[in-house]
Amino acid sequence: MTATPLTDVAQRLLRHVQHESGDLAEQVMRVPVTAYSDPDAYEREIAEIFRKVPLVVCLSADLREPGDLFAIDLVERPIVCVRGKDGVARTFLNACRHRGAKVACNGFGHERRLACPYHAWVYDTDGALIGVPQRDQFGEIDVTGLIELPTEERSGIVFAVLTPGATMDLDAWLGDMAGALEALDLANVHRYEQTTTLESGNWKSTADGYLDGYHVSYLHRANIGQRTMSGRNTYDLYGPHVRIGFANHPIKAMADQPVEEWDLVEAMSLVHYLFPNISISGQASRSTMMSRIVPGPTPDRSTVIQYHYRRDPIDSEAKRTEMETRRKLYAAVTGDEDFATVLGINDTVPALDGHTDFLFGRNEPANQNLHTWVAKLTT
User: What is the reported pLDDT for 1?
Assistant: First the structure.
């Protein structure tokens, strides 16, 4: 499915509002409750999905200059992504080839070289080993640099596969989602320095919340549900990925205006979900939040890291205050409402096991798509 212009999405949303409906799947889907708790299923998801498909590492804008880097631990894979002096972003296992100590601290940073704190082995930003203290006494060294992971950039995003030597066909993986992402102009955003880390339950249950337009008016009725309607969504499926359109109440007043004059930010909200674990909310003309679901360490737990971006440089106290207010708002909404609900679901799963399935309605096509692709890649 080709990524249609956002004006088309807005017009579809208006029709949904007028007809009191939304995009629908063909039928209800049933998912066993054990899908959220079975250790064997969880291990297959980690092995067959998180260590084999292209994952979002960071945005290209996070690595603007040579030496800019980002390090994180993902499903027991410590990685560091760094912009080389040639302008290419490369991802490596964040482990010295001597005895495995990390060569970069987790988070964002800038370094001319990557130095191991243990014995001071040094690597350049291309990953090459360039310095070994007392090399004449060490003996033979049969490694030339850090272990590199397949890495490519598209649509302002850096992707990597967490298995050394794996192949990656990023164009095939993204398909028409690449066009939808291009419209976000992510290459030109500016990151707010503060991130938010929140605890949640099973990673799929957490993802279900990001993909669900059904709950907004209910779970979030005191905040974002006052602006955004439930069940009036568009769902554009691009393989395992999805662009979700949410109708905002002001769209009703735009019905008599030419669509070219619509204020799209007022008319609708957008979420681009990159399978398996990245949600990007926002449009090209406004601030953007990227949420990363990190599974584990057990099937009933995940961590969500939220990153906030602005369209212009964050170069004043007023802008920082605005971004901090936004960060705290979304931390409260997701942490106190979404993730608290998911942790509660964890508590019900053992009692429900063997007695029922979880249901995904026709009005939840993005959730159905997630579970379809999880099953496709793990069975």
Answer: 64
CB 177 within 8 A of CB 243: yes
- Measured CA to CA, the distance from residue 113 to residue 145 in angstroms comes to 12
Q: How far is CA 301 from CA 77, 133, 152, 347, 351, in A?
A: 17, 42, 29, 12, 18
Residue 311 has pLDDT above 70, yes or no: yes
Q: Give the integer Cα–Cα distance in Å for 326 and 245.
A: 21
CA distance 149 to 91: 5
Statement: residue 331 has pLDDT above 90: yes
Pair of tokens at residue 152? 């490519």
Please give the single-letter amino acid code of residue 352.
L
Give the Cα-Cα-Cα angle 112, 113, 116 (nearest 5 degrees).
145
Cα Rg of the chain, angstroms: 22
Task: Tell me 334's DSSP state.
Answer: I
Q: Which two tokens stand for residue 306?
A: 């939220």
Q: Which two tokens stand for residue 376?
A: 């496709």
Contact between 248 and 268 (Cβ < 8 Å): yes
Given a contact cutoff of 8 angstroms between Cβ atoms, the answer to whether 309 and 290 are in contact is: yes
As a whole number of angstroms, the distance between CA 316 and CA 292 comes to 27
Q: What is the pLDDT of residues 140-170, one digit of tens each?
A: 999 999 999 999 999 999 999 999 999 999 9
